[in-house]
Amino acid sequence: MDKKLASPKNAAIYGVLFWVALYLMAPISYTYPFNFISIALLVSCYLLFFLGYFIGIKVKLLDYPIDMPKEKKWLFYFFFIISLISILLLILDKFILRGASLSQGAFANREILANAPPTILGIIGNFIRASVFLTLFLYFKLRINHKRLLIISYSFLFYFILESFLTGSRAIPVFYSVLTLLILFHFKLLRFKMKNFLVLLALGLVFFVILTEIFISRTMEFMGTRERAIEFILMKGSYMDYTILDKSFITFILSINSFYIQSFFVGLASFYTYYLHSIVEFSYLIDHFDAPSQFGSHTFFVIFKFFELIFGGFDGRAYNYIPRPGKYITFFGDIYMDFKGWAVIFMFLFGYWQARIYKTAITKSNFTVIPLILFLCILNFLFPVFNLISGGNGIYLIIGFLFMSYTYKLLSYITVNTKK
Fold it and tell me: Cα–Cα distance between 308 and 302 in angstroms, integer?
């Protein structure tokens, strides 16, 4: 029984509190009016999520022997190999079949991958990429104690971070780094001590500046100079149509002479608009979304894409039903486009499902779902910002974690019963 496991419900609460605190301190203003329906829908989605979670915790679990996995060290090596296969498939997909290159800039690689048709190898590689987190988790859970294997397990994660840098993504490196840290905290390999906090803060600041420099470099590819790129980010960024930085803050940043300090504040300004613009964009969506419900094909697009690639008929995805493509619209905006008013029912079921997953971990010692639960904590924390199911390759991780969890339980169950 693991009573100290991070709670997805608490993560959702902390996410709201963090968003409110950030909004109160950020030098921004909104230029699009909020409407009553959008606020009512946001509140209702949260309330129905918590209600579903509460009921899911209270309902008794059914007894299935397979839900109590045994610790089998050989399964670490099994998932270690799966992780390697995932990386090889994704390298083959992106850098050989679809044409991305180490010699290309991040913007160019992003365009190449956006225009190249997806391959079945890439989708399979993405579906099993969750194994890299399960491998790291099992290394500590099963007490493997082999430093070379630990280094290789970390290198698997580093590959995905490096790959994201090559395509100019700032989101995936952050999500993957946070999920890795949560795994380390779960095993108490990192603790909330002042020394650890200061070290993580220093590393986080360095990482933050690096990500900002990547963003500036990507912008320079079409703006020409660093100065013009920074002005574009501060005044014409893609998230700044209705979320505007105060002019005094922009003037302050442009006047900074230190290269790295300026990079930090450019990143901070970008983070403010990046993190806070979704609420007003959600309000805009509610006012202007007049297309039919997508019935899950928006949020769970990759599942539809997978079957279309297998059975034929995939010719790209048109997002012409989205009023303003490329904007964050909170977690609930994507759900609204799929189910409209029934989004609140989805949130109830989503909360119930999360509670059932969580309960199997704390009452039946089903440790195989813990990486999924930690990921759900990140997803729930970001409810006010964007949908980590449809973005950040989240759906791949959710399906992958579920599949890997069941595979581990099944193999450990078979192993135990064949020896009787």
Answer: 10
Confidence of residue 1 (pLDDT cuts 50, 70, 90): very low
Q: Residue 213 is part of which domain span?
A: 8-418
User: Which of 22-31, 200-209, 362-371 is most confident?
Assistant: 22-31
For the chain, the domain total comes to: 1
Distance CA 140, CA 127 (A): 23
Q: Spell out the long-range contacts of 306-310 with Cβ–Cβ below 8 A and sequence spacing 24 or more.
A: 306/123, 306/127, 309/118, 309/119, 309/120, 309/123, 310/120
Residue 277 located in a structural domain: yes
Angstrom distance (rounded) from CA 156 to CA 131: 10
Q: Is residue 316 scored above 70 in pLDDT? A: no
Please report the pLDDT score of residue 104 as a whole number: 78
Nearest to 157 by CA among 190, 138, 179, 187: 179
Is residue 60 one of the residues assigned to a domain?
Answer: yes
Confidence of residue 168 (pLDDT cuts 50, 70, 90): low
Distance separating alpha carbons of residues 189 and 182, to the nearest angstrom: 10
What's the CA angle centered on 93, arms 91 and 94, to 5 degrees?
70
1 in a structural domain: no
Nearest to 282 by CA among 44, 37, 46, 48: 37
Q: In angstroms, what CA-CA distances link 157 with 83, 123, 129, 134? A: 10, 18, 9, 11
Position 272 in a domain: yes
Banded pLDDT at 41 (limits 50, 70, 90): very high
Predicted TM-score (pTM) of the model is: 0.91
* Half-sphere CA count of 87, side-chain side, radius 13 A: 20
